[in-house]
Design goal:
This protein has 132 residues and is an alpha/beta fold. Helices cover 39% and strands 21% of the residues.
Length: 132
């Protein structure tokens, strides 16, 4: 089983990646979409509740032996990239922790790149896509 953190600001690029690579047996957890689906406008107010929902989705998916593709909400300006990497702590040891990075979308964001480089050792595998 694999857990992928997908660094993309554009969901359409990721959907194209899934289609072109014929990715099967997966669950996509798009944080931005989930916030809209649960009608959560003020994230800080419902932070614990929302995090529990996401954690439950991740666990249920892994119990079904499916891969998880986790898309953080990069439109949230308060988001800290290192906080995303903390997800590894809640995953079981038999789950591969991977990163999928759409390079062109973050090429001008030094903070994101620095965070990824500093934490590269925590990933089992990394895939960097120049253009999609």
């Amino acid at each position: 089983m694999n857990f992928y953190i997908v660094f993309t600001k554009n969901r359409k690029k990721f959907d194209k990646y899934v289609k072109v690579n014929k990715v099967k047996n997966k669950t996509i957890i798009d944080i931005k979409q989930q916030l809209e689906e649960y009608n959560i406008i003020n994230y800080n107010e419902y932070k614990e509740y929302f995090n529990l929902l996401i954690y439950t989705k991740i666990n249920q998916t892994l119990m079904k032996k499916k891969d998880v593709y986790y898309l953080p909400n990069f439109s949230n300006k308060q988001m800290v990239v290192e906080d995303i990497f903390k997800i590894k702590k809640i995953l079981e040891n038999n789950v591969n922790f991977n990163i999928l990075l759409f390079f062109d979308e973050f090429k001008d964001d030094d903070v994101v790149y620095q965070s990824i480089l500093e934490n590269m050792s925590i990933f089992n595998a990394s895939q960097i896509l120049k253009s999609y």
